[in-house]
Amino acid sequence: MIQLLGKYIQKTKDYSILDESVGGLSVKERIQLMLDYLKRERYNTKYNLLWGAMTADWGDVQPHDDFGCDWNALSNEAIDVYDNAMLIIALQLLIEIQPNAAKTADWKAFKKSLKKQQTLSLGSKKAKIYSPYLSKIIPPPLKVSMKIRFITMAEQQLRLKRVCSNGAK
Questions:
Q1: From CA 39, how far away is CA 26, in angstroms rounded?
Q2: Residue 169 falls within a domain, yes or no?
Q3: 143 with 151: CB under 8 angstroms?
Q4: Number of domains observed in the structure of the chain
Q5: Would you give the DSSP letter of residue 20?
Q6: CB 53 within 8 A of CB 69
Q7: What is the CATH number for 106?
Q8: Range of 118's domain?
Q9: Mean pLDDT for each consecutive 10-residue tract of the chain (169 residues)?
Q10: pTM greater than the 0.85 cutoff
């Protein structure tokens, strides 16, 4: 949602949407509530990264569940490169559309921390690749059965740079 809003504002220059009221709160306030939710409910404090469900394909297939991807008792918690990269991109767009917001310094620090932790926990500088999932929290049977396409660090950085106009520093 944050990425969509950021891209809309970049294209239209319509910053007034940030002050629109939705259910008694401005869009700006709702954006912060989204980030607060992610930090409170989907943030792994051991690895300092977001977590979600272990999924495949377009995120709609779970390894132990044959009927979709709603979180349930069959779901496996996983830290993955995709969720964290999407948040990094969203934070960059948020910083660009609200450079003088009260929370901008917090967003910049959070983005910097996510990038560092993603590289430390999901990357291998020696092999110059990112693992799609943090293997330390994947249950052993899944490690053996998963066929993973590793993403090179250079490829991931290029993806981030393409989306973030200033290179996502």
A1: 20
A2: no
A3: no
A4: 1
A5: -
A6: yes
A7: 1.50.10.10
A8: 2-163
A9: 93 96 96 95 91 65 62 75 90 93 94 91 73 61 44 60 50
A10: no
Residue 45 is assigned to a structural domain of this protein: yes
Q: Which helix (H) or strand (E) holds 11?
A: helix 2-12
Q: What is the DSSP string of 75-143?
A: --EE-BHHHHHHHHHHHHHHHHH-TT-TTHHHHHHHHHHHHHHHHHHHEETTTTEE-SB-GGGS-HHHH
pLDDT score of 134: 72
Predicted pLDDT at 57 = 55
Backbone angles phi, psi at 151, to 5 degrees: -105, 125
If you search the block for the tokens 């290029």, which residue do you land on? 158
139 is a domain residue:
yes
- How many other C-beta atoms lie within 10 A of the C-beta of residue 64? 13
Q: At what angle do helices 104-122 and 27-41 cross, to 10 degrees?
A: 30
Burial of 96-106, coded b for 16+ CB within 10 Å and e otherwise, reads ebbeebeeeee
Contact 48, 38 (CB under 8 A): no
| Cβ atoms of 31 and 2 closer than 8 Å | yes
Taking CA 8 as the corner, what is the angle to CA 113 and CA 161, rounded to the nearest 5 degrees? 40
Helix (H, G, I), strand (E, B) or coil at 34: helix
